[in-house]
């Protein structure tokens, strides 16, 4: 007698969840139709009211306002929108780093330009023909300094040594016009220059200080550009198929379910985005190292390396050196004659007073130390703020772009319906996504574009580390612990220069925790055959043991 009522009750219970709180009347799809049209899609074939959702492949298969075509269109739309969010976030970081580079580059170039202009303005009246007949020597020096700063493949110390050598040869001839001085004689004189120190201590002192300052300035400027370029390239990495499905489920499935006003649960959004950006999060370690290294070099530039004073007074140091040669002309000439012999008397000797003019150094340098201090202070603030960019990106996107609910909200979209989200939030990086409940992530297949950018960060960080102690190193020596094989194709010419003669390693950071795969390399075939033999042995032992226990 109770069978009918009991069966009828079960039927009612079974049918209730399919409708949720919609009652017996199908809910209107007006909100979804409005959204769908606003996204640029045709409303032809879009349901007016909920339909059965067995056809859905991504969203829950309850009653729905979405057809298969709508689901596919929403999936493609969610992919393009999420990728646009990534690029927009990246452009903000790029803009910050590019602005810092532009500010420092403008300051440094202006510093060098002012020094060069001061030399051109003052030297003609100070030194007469000693300057006017050797203008190209000075121009070449500043040209070489700029080339080095712009990452040309030149040796700065050699460029400075060449300048002093050329200057000494020309000034010695002009200061001794009564003698016929051959190229061979000049070669002899140059060999004794280190001993006689015709320019005093200026060449050695300027070489030490200018080299440190230029190395630091060049690496510092490069660091901003490399950081910006890494963000640009990483922001262009496409989403995986699994990620696209998860983003669609996060952003548009609630609309299909008639829950347009329900925001995604915060932790649900975090798991989706952390799964999608798992490879990007692995940039975090090397990215922080780059930011810290830039801050360290910034302190050097505005501190011990004293870029403002060193670069801004190059013309004054040159004037000091020339004056030293003029004041000690007789003594230096005597020493040269003792070492190289007396040159022949010239029949074209000139007694022009212009050539013998003595100029007292009255040059002054306008300090821009305060401007540098402000630049460094601003840069350090921005760099500190960007340190955690890659691991805070998921929460930033969820709160500002996806508009996820608050953490305490228990009436949010959890991927299936309106309610609370129970799974825990995954950690950062590829290795931590092995149990991500929202995105299927293959932790054994890291994105190679991002791995290449991790290497770029390592290269630049090492260069900054060396600049911090005054060393200028070739890029192939960027790290003592980078051994093994790898591809150097990702290293752009403007960063690595032409010095890159061997490929750097693609050693991955420890955070990846990616197991090495067998079956690759020379011994690949034998490696693959070993498990089958071991398995047979184990199975044999297991059978014998089982037979023994059975008895």
Automatic annotation (TrEMBL):
Record's bilayer topology term: Lipid-anchor; GPI-anchor
Residues of the signal peptide: 1-20
GO cellular component: cell surface; extracellular region; plasma membrane; side of membrane; synapse
Alphabetic keyword roster: Cell membrane, Disulfide bond, Glycoprotein, GPI-anchor, Heparan sulfate, Lipoprotein, Membrane, Proteoglycan, Secreted, Signal
GO biological process per UniProt: cell migration; negative regulation of fibroblast growth factor receptor signaling pathway; regulation of protein localization to membrane
Lineage of the species this protein comes from: Eukaryota, Metazoa, Chordata, Craniata, Vertebrata
InterPro entries registered for this protein in UniProt: Glypican, Glypican_CS
Main function: Cell surface proteoglycan.
Presence of keyword Disulfide bond: yes
Compositional bias segments (type: Low complexity): 481-494
Keyword Disulfide bond tagged: yes
Compartments, record wording: Cell membrane; Secreted, Extracellular space
Descriptive protein name: Glypican-1
GO molecular function annotations of the record: fibroblast growth factor binding
Family annotation (Pfam families): Glypican (PF01153)
Organism expressing this protein natively: Rhagologus leucostigma
UniProt similarity note: Belongs to the glypican family.
Region (Disordered): 475-526
Residue ranges with Polar residues bias: 502-515
């Amino acid at each position: 007698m109770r069978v009918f009522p009991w069966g009828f009750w079960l039927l009612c219970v079974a049918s209730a969840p399919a409708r949720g709180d919609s009652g017996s009347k199908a809910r209107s799809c007006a909100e979804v139709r409005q959204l769908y049209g606003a996204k640029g899609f045709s409303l032809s074939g879009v349901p007016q009211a909920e339909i059965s959702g067995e056809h859905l492949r991504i969203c829950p298969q309850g009653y729905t306002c979405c057809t298969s075509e709508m689901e596919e269109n929403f999936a493609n739309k969610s992919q393009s929108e999420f990728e646009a969010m990534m690029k927009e976030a990246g452009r903000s970081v790029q803009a910050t780093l590019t602005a810092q580079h532009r500010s420092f580059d403008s300051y440094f170039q202006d510093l060098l330009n002012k020094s060069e202009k001061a030399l051109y303005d003052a030297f003609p009246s100070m030194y007469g023909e000693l300057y006017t007949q050797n203008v190209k020597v000075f121009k070449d020096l500043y040209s070489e300094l700029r080339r080095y700063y712009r990452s040309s493949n030149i040796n700065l110390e050699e460029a400075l040594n060449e300048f002093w050598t050329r200057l000494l040869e020309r000034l010695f001839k002009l200061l001794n016009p009564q003698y016929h001085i051959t190229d061979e004689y000049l070669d002899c004189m140059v060999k004794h220059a280190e001993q006689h120190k015709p320019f005093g201590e200026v060449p050695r002192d300027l070489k030490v200080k200018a080299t440190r300052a230029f190395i630091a300035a060049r690496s510092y400027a490069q660091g901003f550009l490399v950081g910006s370029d890494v963000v640009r390239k990483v922001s262009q990495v496409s989403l995986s198929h699994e990620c696209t499905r998860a983003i669609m489920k996060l952003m548009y499935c609630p609309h299909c379910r008639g829950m347009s006003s329900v925001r995604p649960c915060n932790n649900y959004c975090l798991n989706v985005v952390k799964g999608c950006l798992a490879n990007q999060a692995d940039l975090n370690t090397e990215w922080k190292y780059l930011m810290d290294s830039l801050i360290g070099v910034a302190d050097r530039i505005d501190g011990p390396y004293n870029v403002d004073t060193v670069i801004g007074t190059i013309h004054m140091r040159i004037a000091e050196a020339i004056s030293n040669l003029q004041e000690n002309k007789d003594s230096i000439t005597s020493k040269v004659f003792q070492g190289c012999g007396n040159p022949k008397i010239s029949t074209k000797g000139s007694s022009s007073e212009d050539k013998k003019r003595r100029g007292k150094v009255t040059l002054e340098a306008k300090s821009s130390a305060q401007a540098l201090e402000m630049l460094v202070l601003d840069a350090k603030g921005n760099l500190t703020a960007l340190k955690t960019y890659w691991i805070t990106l998921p929460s930033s996107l969820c709160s500002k772009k996806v508009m996820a609910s608050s953490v305490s909200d228990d009436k949010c979209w959890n991927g299936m319906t309106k309610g609370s989200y129970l799974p825990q939030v995954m950690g950062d990086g590829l290795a931590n996504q092995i149990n991500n409940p929202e995105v299927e992530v293959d932790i054994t297949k890291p994105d190679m574009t991002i791995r290449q950018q991790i290497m770029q960060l390592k290269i630049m960080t090492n260069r900054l580390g060396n600049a911090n102690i005054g060393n200028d190193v070739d890029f192939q020596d960027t790290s003592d612990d980078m051994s093994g094989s790898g591809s150097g194709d990702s290293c752009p010419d403007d960063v690595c220069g032409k010095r890159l003669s061997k490929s750097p390693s693609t050693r991955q950071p420890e955070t990846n925790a990616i197991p090495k795969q067998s079956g690759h390399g020379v011994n690949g075939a034998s490696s693959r055959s070993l498990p089958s033999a071991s398995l047979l042995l184990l199975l044999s032992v297991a059978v014998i043991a089982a037979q023994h226990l059975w008895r």
